[in-house]
Automatic annotation (TrEMBL):
Pfam families linked: LrgB (PF04172)
Alphabetically ordered keywords of this record: Membrane, Transmembrane, Transmembrane helix
One cellular component term from this protein's GO annotations in UniProt: membrane
Name listed for the protein in its UniProt record: CidA-associated membrane protein CidB
InterPro entries referenced in this protein's UniProt entry, alphabetically: CidB/LrgB
Species: plant metagenome
Coiled coil residues, start to end: none
Membrane-spanning parts: 6-25, 37-54, 60-80, 92-115, 144-164, 205-228
Topological type in the membrane: Multi-pass membrane protein
Annotated compartments: Membrane
Length: 229
């Protein structure tokens, strides 16, 4: 595909496919028809049929990637609305985020070691448990491949949302604080969206936990690389 067309066609195709898949997801919500799963699969099929390389796709879609940061910052508004609840429980939230981030990094290392993955794949896997705006620069910083990290982040989010729904149903989590933190820590952006489907308060807590986890992992992931890899 010509470069001039790539700047127009791929961003439009990405947004259009996402809108269509989200429409079907709202009518029949399930993990297997999530827009975050179907959109890249459909785009990959289209790109393969047109013999389009990843670099050509990104030529026109960089601005979509750049929007991830501002969208993440927008989570600050619902977090601010729940500031009284957060003020009362911030020690528990912070302790949970630090513990969860440490366990996530260590479990990623264990999985990578068990699979005997090459060094660059191991480094790409370590930031899988944080939101994309944090995960991509962390991956670059520790010598990973950001494109692979993005895939790991999406898969972690989808799996975390599915497991989180099961745990939310069967574990005695009576407070919205615990339920929101579970989804925000375990499934980052996907978890925040799912938490907001349950209640605004849960979504706000999930958004705060997601942001805090990203900030904590920016610090601990390079340390984990030095100690474990």
């Amino acid at each position: 595909m010509r470069t001039e067309l790539a700047y127009v066609v791929w961003p439009v195709a990405t947004v259009l496919v996402y809108v269509v898949t989200r429409h079907f997801y709202r009518r029949a919500p399930s993990w297997w028809n999530s827009p975050l799963l179907l959109t890249p699969v459909i785009l990959l099929a289209i790109a393969g049929a047109l013999h389009t390389r990843y670099s050509e796709y990104m030529q026109g879609s960089q601005w979509l990637l750049a929007m991830i940061g501002p969208v993440t910052v927008a989570f600050a508004l619902p977090v601010y609305e729940q500031r009284a609840l957060i003020r009362r429980h911030w020690p528990a939230l912070l302790a949970g985020v630090i513990a969860g981030s440490t366990i996530a990094a260590f479990s990623s290392w264990l999985l990578a070691s068990w699979l005997n993955l090459p060094s660059d794949l191991q480094r790409s896997l370590l930031p899988r448990s944080i939101a994309t705006p944090f995960a991509l620069p962390v991956s670059s910083r520790v010598g990973g491949v950001p494109e692979l990290t993005a895939v790991f982040v999406v898969l972690t989010g989808l799996l975390g949302a599915v497991v989180g729904q099961v745990m939310r149903k069967w574990l005695p989590l009576r407070s919205s604080l615990a339920r929101g933190a579970l989804l925000g820590m375990g499934a980052h952006g996907v978890g925040v969206a799912k938490a907001r489907e349950y209640a605004a308060e849960e979504g706000s807590i999930a958004g705060l936990v997601m942001i805090l986890a990203g900030l904590v992992n920016v610090s601990i992931t390079p340390i984990a690389v030095m100690l474990l890899l």
